[in-house]
């Protein structure tokens, strides 16, 4: 396989803080040290971009930087380099596991039971750490799945709602593929998610109207009293995927993001939530029309769904 190699030297008079900062940057992007002053990343577009920025900074500091692609290291098998990447991630994952050990011990001892906000804060910090490591876990360390399972288990045990969906009917998608739909104007996260769901899984060309007054032949969603609406602790998006028995892991993760933005009850911790919230806020402040909000929303949720599905299948 191909590798990207980066080497550099900085002027002797340059302060130690610059060297430390560059070393930290190399660690943050997941680079491993093959030999003194030589750093390696797999041949990927994002990795190349990371090294290119660092090379530019070194040159701006009047240092020397070299960046190249190579097919093979003399005397070093690809498998050895891959194991070196995995070992670096294993060490980082172990730090998260130590944090999880402490958190589980505290929960068993009920030291934090009276302060769920502390548990939430610690768990969110550990999940954010996991997300950062996962970004540079180029060769899928076997420790990742174990850590993720523990994170999810603690979260579900401590905060996940007891979702009771008894009482919701079950319909096949074919029963609704020719229906007309209506929801309230100025759609936000839950309604935009439902629009994407309708066009992605029910009918790509479905008629979806934005109005506070449904017509007799329209199916309302996220409207007061509508079947497809909030139900118990579910947002409308969750209600729809339950009614239509849509169960893949990408949808589940997307539902958690939509749930948290819409209900803000602190149940789910997804690293994507903050970014999606800012994007949606920006759209509303920009005064987009309903058609523009729908088009942007479909693109956003399709990208999220594709990424979340891929991440779920590889973990």
Question: Shape from CA axes?
Answer: elongated
| β-strand amount | 5-15%
Count of separate DSSP helical elements: 10
Mean pLDDT: 89
Number of E-type strands: 7
Q: What does the radius of gyration come to?
A: 24 Å
Largest sheet: 4 strands, antiparallel
List unreliable stretches of 5+ residues. none
C-alpha end-to-end distance: 22 Å
Helix content: 40-55%
| Structural class by secondary-structure content | alpha/beta
Counted up, domains total 3
**Strand neighbour order, sheet with most strands:** 2-3-1-4
Q: Can you write the helix and strand succession as a string?
A: EHEEHEHHHEHEEHHHH
Compact summary:
The protein has 315 residues and is of the alpha/beta class. It has helices spanning 16-28, 45-60, 78-108, 116-135, 143-158, 189-202, 236-243, 249-263, 273-285, 290-314, and strands at residues 3-9, 32-35, 38-42, 64-70, 180-183, 208-210, 218-220. The strands form two sheets. Strands 2-3-1-4 form a four-stranded antiparallel sheet, sandwiched between helices.
